[in-house]
């Protein structure tokens, strides 16, 4: 068992830094060690003694992305040149969270990490890490930018799909498994984004100054919620690299935040800290002295930001603002994990044009999608039975619009990706035993056809970021499409307004879409209809408005270009009730034995969700289908929770997340009962928008550049417990086709001062399956902790009637809280509550222990 690293006071830490810097300043004079006694760090120190200043600098300043010849993809989104003279190879950094991203072809699209987290399966996540590493290596990469260890503070986070859930213990266990799998293959994993990086809104700010959001979070919350997964990555995972985040933490940029980065070294981190791309490194000497080792990607920034390392760092050394020892330390931090990974002892591997797919990886992608799917509701409709002779499959997400992955960022997406789509997979599985008919039911969640109101739009373009002052350009435009009607000379932070009149074709639901980057708000007769909120890249949002059709309506579209980091783009689309496909879907559902509606979203890096509703007319579609056929099943391919106003009217609900390329194969096997559901929610599903942390503007997404983590340690299910909120579905919840019984709870102290906990789980149902008993600990009330905290879990596969003993262990550290005044972890004494349960809200088996 690892011992807790010593926590030093600010004064003693400063002394250690000074001693360490002095030693590093004299590193050139250190005697050589015997080769057989060299640790990776000692070998790194020896290499650095042989380097020139230019060679050391080449290890800490990244290059711009290198284009793969003839491949159309960047093998290295960041690159360190290495030192060929000394046998130090280049480092090639690349995304992504669920496969080899950044435009790579002939790679596997695994399910999103949140789907893997829902499996609660450490061995599965380690296998995922191994497969990911193998494909990155095959494409010529040796640093994988992942896993994401940020806590899912709010389900509105745009990168929720990349997370491992809302709980620090679960995230730590699964994150360590992914890292272990990756690094066992000889690559360097990069745990990201350190720290308190929990939203997309203003994460690096808006042009022209790009002032990043400031996460105001207290020290106890940092230590108990936002640090533990990174600490585990260092101490249990031996992670080679950590990425510091774009945002500020308590007023200081994360990549020049000395207390933040010092915490990594206190935990024993020997690898390198790399800045998130372009916007995270904002200074030279402060960042270097604080602990940033690598600025990435360097070169001329397309956003007007200056280099911070490279020539500026050389000048800082030459004029004495940064001691040479700091550069030595940074170079040693880069070399140490390279040596640990064996990168100096074997030739570079892989090629950008290689086909790295394999049958084993395809099977693993399917397995993750199956294990991660969560059965939320089942009123006897699943699995599909032999008497279901006619099955209606409905939804754009069932076919061409299948949401298998995030749309932007580092996710896998390329033409020719062999995606198994639900409709085809269900037809193949049903064969001649059932007739499967399809109705789209909706135009999907993408951009709608261009809206062309009679008379066009009156457009006004302003050279200011907020529609203030007189317009620089005023003109009539037939449509809103910035790609086709650019305006020059407005600068980076400009704004625009379009107004027009729409004559409805009749009563009903009217749909609108906004596609682009920046901030845009569409008003219909003064009512907000669609909101594109501070999108950094190019997102699509949809809105639905019910009109009586009796009179024309006014349209007003307002746009601010500042939040986007790409060339400003915006287009306005629309669809009338005459374009509705719901009636055909209802007719099909009415004459079928069962209806399966696939619904999805389009959430991605670059923008947070403004609400938790399904986009477009999908709620209306589900309501109408359920009214026509009570045996309706809803399959959600979403980033996470959505509101379910139709929940009481449908017979079954499945959360399948973004399931990767084996989407159809996995869901067909589950719906027909070839596989059993076993997934458990890694995040709480709220019943309405008011629940959970971040329900006010100050707490999410922030006001005036600050977001306040007012909930402290009450994150996720902790918040629901403390505030007595009843969620729609609890953290850890998930149904099965079988039934499981918990019994035989026993807890006894062990020799280390921890606690051994045992329980029995029995499969009481009609078929084999897997269950995940979860161990929760409740502190004595004076400790000021939330009522329950996850401290253990174990996935157990059981045959019919089989009983297995689950053994879980609580370490002495599990009974500690962080004492802010003392600056250290402190044991709590008293009577603790203990429960082993099916989810965070389940009563389960409870007992008490006194320490």
What name does the CATH topology of the largest domain carry?
A: TIM Barrel
What sort of overall outline do the alpha carbons produce when their principal axes are compared? globular
* Superfamily (CATH H level) name of the largest domain: Glycoside hydrolase, family 3, N-terminal domain
The secondary-structure class comes to alpha/beta
* Rounded average pLDDT: 92
Q: Any idea what the radius of gyration is?
A: 27 Å
Q: Could you give the count of β-strands?
A: 34
Domains, number: 4
Q: Tell me what the CATH architecture of the largest domain is.
A: Alpha-Beta Barrel
Strand content: 15-25%
| Structure annotation, total helices | 18
Molecular structure report:
The protein is of the alpha/beta class. It has four domains: about 10-30 and about 40-340, Glycoside hydrolase, family 3, N-terminal domain (TIM Barrel); about 375-440 and about 580-685, 3-Layer(aba) Sandwich (Rossmann fold), CATH 3.40.50; about 455-575, Jelly Rolls; about 740-850, Immunoglobulins (Immunoglobulin-like). About 20% of the residues lie in helices and about 25% in strands. The strands form eight sheets. Strands 13, 14, 15, 16, 17, 18 and 19 form a seven-stranded antiparallel beta sheet that branches. Strands 1-2-3-4-6-9 form a six-stranded mixed beta sheet. Helix 16 links the parallel strand 20 (about 595-600) and strand 21. Helix 15 runs parallel beside helix 16 (about 620-630). The longest helix has 17 residues, at about 120-140. It is globular.
């Amino acid at each position: 068992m690892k011992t807790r690293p010593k926590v030093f006071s600010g004064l003693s830490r400063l002394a250690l830094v000074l001693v360490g810097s002095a030693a590093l300043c004299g590193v050139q004079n250190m005697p050589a060690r015997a080769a057989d006694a060299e640790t990776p760090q000692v070998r790194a120190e020896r290499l650095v003694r042989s380097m020139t200043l230019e060679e050391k600098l080449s290890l800490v300043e990244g290059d711009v992305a290198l284009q793969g010849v003839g491949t159309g993809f960047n093998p290295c989104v960041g690159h360190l040149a290495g030192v060929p003279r000394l046998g130090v190879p280049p480092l090639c950094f690349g995304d992504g969270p669920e496969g080899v991203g950044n435009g790579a072809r002939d790679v596997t699209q695994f399910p999103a990490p949140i789907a893997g987290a829902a499996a609660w399966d450490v061995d599965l996540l380690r296998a995922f890490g191994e497969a990911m590493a193998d494909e990155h290596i095959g494409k010529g990469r040796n640093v994988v930018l992942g896993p994401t260890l940020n806590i899912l503070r709010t389900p509105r986070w745009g990168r929720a799909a990349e997370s491992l859930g809302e709980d620090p213990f679960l995230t730590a266990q699964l994150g360590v498994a992914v890292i272990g799998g990756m690094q066992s293959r000889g690559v360097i994993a990069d745990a990201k984004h350190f720290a308190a990086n929990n939203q997309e809104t203003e994460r690096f700010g808006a042009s022209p100054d790009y002032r990043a959001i400031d996460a105001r979070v207290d020290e106890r919350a940092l230590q108990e919620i936002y640090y533990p997964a990174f600490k585990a990555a260092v101490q249990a995972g031996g992670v080679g690299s950590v990425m510091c985040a774009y945002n500020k933490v308590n007023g200081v940029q994360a990549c020049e935040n000395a207390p933040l980065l010092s915490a990594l070294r206190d935990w024993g981190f020997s690898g390198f800290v790399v800045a998130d791309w372009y916007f995270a490194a904002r200074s030279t000497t402060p960042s270097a002295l604080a602990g940033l080792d690598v600025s990435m990607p360097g070169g001329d920034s397309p956003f007007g930001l200056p280099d911070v390392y490279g020539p500026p760092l050389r000048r800082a050394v030459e004029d004495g603002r940064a001691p040479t020892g700091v550069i030595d330390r940074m170079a040693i931090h880069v070399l140490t994990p390279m040596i640990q990974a064996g990168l100096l002892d074997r030739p570079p591997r892989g090629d950008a044009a290689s086909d790295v797919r394999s049958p084993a990886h395809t099977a693993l992608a399917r397995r993750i999608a199956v294990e991660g799917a969560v059965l939320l509701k089942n009123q006897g409709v699943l699995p599909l039975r032999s008497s279901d002779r006619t099955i209606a499959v409905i939804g754009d997400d069932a076919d061409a619009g299948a949401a298998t992955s995030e749309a932007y960022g580092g996710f896998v997406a390329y033409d020719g990706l062999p995606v198994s789509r639900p409709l085809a997979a269900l037809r193949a599985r049903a064969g001649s035993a059932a007739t499967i008919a399809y109705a789209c039911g909706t135009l999907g969640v993408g951009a709608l056809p261009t809206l062309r109101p009679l008379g066009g739009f009156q457009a006004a373009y302003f050279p200011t970021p907020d529609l203030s002052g007189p317009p620089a350009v005023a003109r009539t435009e037939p449509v809103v499409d910035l790609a086709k009607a650019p305006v020059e000379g407005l600068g980076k932070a400009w704004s625009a307004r379009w107004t027009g009149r729409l004559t409805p074709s009749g009563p009903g639901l009217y749909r609108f879409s906004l596609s682009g980057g920046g901030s845009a708000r569409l008003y219909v007769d003064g009512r907000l209809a669609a909101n594109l909120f501070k999108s950094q890249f190019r997102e699509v949002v949809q809105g639905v408005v019910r009109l009586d059709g009796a009179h024309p309506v006014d349209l007003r579209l307002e746009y601010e270009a500042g939040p986007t980091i790409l060339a400003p783009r915006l287009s306005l689309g629309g669809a009338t009730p005459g374009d509705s496909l719901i009636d055909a879907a209802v007719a099909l559902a009415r004459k079928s034995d069962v209806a399966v509606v696939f619904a999805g979203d389009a959430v991605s890096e670059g923008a947070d969700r403004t609400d938790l509703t399904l986009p477009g007319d999908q709620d209306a579609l589900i309501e109408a289908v359920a009214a026509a056929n009570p045996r309706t099943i809803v399959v959600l391919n979403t980033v996470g929770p959505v509101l379910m106003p139709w929940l009481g009217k449908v017979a079954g609900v499945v959360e399948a997340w973004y399931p990767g390329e084996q989407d159809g194969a996995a869901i067909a096997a589950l719906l027909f009962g070839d596989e059993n559901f076993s997934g458990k929610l890694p995040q709480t599903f709220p019943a309405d928008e008011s629940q959970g942390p971040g329900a006010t503007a100050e707490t999410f997404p922030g006001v005036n550049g600050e977001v306040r983590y007012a909930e402290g340690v009450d994150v996720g299910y902790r918040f629901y417990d403390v505030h007595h909120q009843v969620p729609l579905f609890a953290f850890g919840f998930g149904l099965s086709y079988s039934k499981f019984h918990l019994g035989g709870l026993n807890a006894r102290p062990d020799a280390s001062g921890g606690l051994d906990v045992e329980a029995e789980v029995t499969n009481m149902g009609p078929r084999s399956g897997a269950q995940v008993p979860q161990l929760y600990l409740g502190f004595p009330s004076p400790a000021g902790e939330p009522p329950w905290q996850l401290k253990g879990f174990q996935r157990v596969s059981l045959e019919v009637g089989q009983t297995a003993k689950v053994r879980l262990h609580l370490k002495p550290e599990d009974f500690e809280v962080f004492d802010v005044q003392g600056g250290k972890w402190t044991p709590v004494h008293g009577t603790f509550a203990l429960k082993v349960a099916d989810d965070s809200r389940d009563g389960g088996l409870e007992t008490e222990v006194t320490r």
